[in-house]
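Translate sequence into structure tokens.
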Amino acid sequence: MTNDSGEKEEQVVSKENTYTPTSADVGGRLSLSVWPADARRNPPPVPVTICPLARVEPDMTGLGYVSRAEHTRTTYPVDSDTLRLVSYNILAVKYALDDKGLNGTYPYCDVKALQNGYRDSVLSHELPAYNADIMCLQEVEQTRLKAPILASLPGYSCHVSMKHQLREGMATLWRKDRFVHRESKEYRMKEVLFEHPIMAEFFKALPSRLRGGFKPRNTVMQLTHLQQKSNGRDIIVGNTHLYYLPTANEQRLAMSYITMKMMQHYKQQVTEWTSCPLPPALLLCGDFNSTPDRAVHEIITTGALNRTHPNRVSEDNRDVIEHPCEHDLRFGSVAPHPDVPWSNYTSSFVGMIDNIYFEDSAFDLVKAIPMPTEETVQEFTALPSVRYCSDHLPVIGEVRFKDT
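Result follows.
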């Protein structure tokens, strides 16, 4: 058997006349060696190797995404006023396995299900099954971009932003038959905070120790300007992955406010550049590493932050963010929703930390695609597992333009 990079990792898996592949074979390629029947020859006959055979794929009928894909079988017409959106942290390879190639991070998960070949095979079937109009991915590595992501989505274009030094980042994808790509921008949060004029007031109000905490952060925000081919309507799609550390609520507070201010600023620029009578409609997807009770959600959805919100105080109670965090945008969200109770489900944490936000003035929520049942996820303790290739599940929602 050989892996997808062509490196020889051959081992004999059977000497019988028939062989049924197992989960351990997924992602590899099976070779068949045949010996001539006359074993009495001297010297012995040389085996003939037939290689490679087809890559071994997992049994898709038992995978977790299949039940959710029942809700996304259809593709919306190019002139539809409804958009299907997907936000998905696909779990970077570097986080799935430890330095020794073992499942130290997810000890309950079969290490074979964390291997690149297995997870990429699942992902190559899962992503196209959602028939998304716009898809925002997090923890994307360049090594996985061409395959399985783009190879499985030939009808999509893509913009990728990588985090400095981490070798993983974000990808925003859109249907080529439905949208024209106008522009993509990326902003590094710490650079915006320290250098952009629109953040000057907030920067002054931020305690100096919290400013210093921003310096090592690699957090990036993508903004992608798309235009619908059918009616010329402009859309701005944001995609981000906020810093993960549980004790860094005040940093995520600042990052969410930076995101809102930059989206507001870019919306004003696009409005001035374009001749469309309607302002661009805003969407924001990502892994926000914050549950809906945290400051991030309140800033995005209400346009400010309550003066008494506990996330204003640093974890060690030494600093307080007094700035009101006001902006002019208002967003609805796919979650919290009865059908979407959580998006990250591991043995140590269960919560709704991924989301899709849509500008209230431009969109209505049509539906949220339900998450699988908790019993299904718990079949193999938690995520990831042989049924699910990430510790996150994609948030999938459909929104409709209000003005059409």
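Note: The radius of gyration is 24 Å.
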